[in-house]
UniProtKB/TrEMBL annotation:
Name of this chain's protein: Deoxyuridine 5'-triphosphate nucleotidohydrolase
Residues noted as binding substrate in the record, renumbered to the chain: 63-65, 76, 80-82
Organism of this sequence: Apibacter mensalis
Taxonomy of the source species: Bacteria, Pseudomonadati, Bacteroidota, Flavobacteriia, Flavobacteriales
Pathway membership, UniProt: Pyrimidine metabolism; dUMP biosynthesis; dUMP from dCTP (dUTP route): step 2/2
Keyword NAD set for record: no
Pfam families, A to Z: dUTPase (PF00692)
InterPro entries: dUTPase, dUTPase-like, dUTPase-like_sf, dUTPase_trimeric
Length: 144
C-alpha cells in the first residue's frame, strides 16, 4: 500500500523494523528537549503529514518498552488518524510514573499501524437476535 506523506521533520520516514512488524516507530520532532512530569499529558509533534486511503485509519499506539520501563503511554490508545485528516501527526503521551521523563528530538515515542476499517450503516430494529450470553457483560462469563 502506498501512502502519501510530507516529512517536515529532521528524521527519516517511519519504517518497519522487521519483516512482520505491524507498526512503525514515530519519532519526536522537537527543537529542544521536552519534560513530561508525573501524570502530565502533552502532544508531541512528529513533523509528518499523511494521506491515508479511504477505508483505512492510522492507529497510534504506545511503545511497549516505554510503557514497561518508564510508565509512558498513550492515554487514548489506540489514537485514530482519520483518512480525511491532513494536519500534522501528533502523539499524545502521558507519564504514568512518579518520575520526570525527558523526550528528546528523534526519540521513538509511539507506533503507527495502518488498519482497514468498515463504515457502518445503521439498521434500526425492534429486537436483536438471541444468544447464549444475552445481556451478560463485565465479567459475566466467569473468571476461568
Amino acid at each position: 500500500m502506498k501512502i502519501k506523506v510530507i516529512n517536515k521533520s529532521k528524521h527519516p520516514l517511519p519504517e518497519y523494523k522487521t519483516a512482520l512488524s505491524a507498526g512503525m516507530d514515530l519519532k519526536a520532532n522537537l527543537d529542544m528537549p521536552l519534560l513530561l512530569k508525573p501524570s502530565e499529558r502533552k502532544v508531541i509533534p512528529t513533523g509528518l503529514y499523511i494521506e491515508i486511503p479511504p477505508g483505512y485509519e492510522g492507529q497510534i499506539r504506545a511503545r511497549s518498552g516505554l510503557a514497561l520501563k518508564y510508565g509512558i503511554g498513550c492515554p487514548n490508545s489506540p489514537g485514530t488518524i482519520d483518512a480525511d485528516y491532513r494536519g500534522e501527526v501528533g502523539v499524545i503521551l502521558i507519564n504514568l510514573s512518579k518520575e520526570d521523563f525527558s523526550i528528546n528530538d528523534g526519540d521513538r515515542i509511539a507506533q503507527l499501524v495502518i488498519a482497514k476499517h468498515e463504515t457502518v450503516i445503521w439498521e434500526e430494529v425492534d429486537k436483536l437476535n438471541d444468544t447464549v450470553r444475552g445481556e451478560g457483560g463485565y465479567g459475566s462469563s466467569g473468571i476461568k
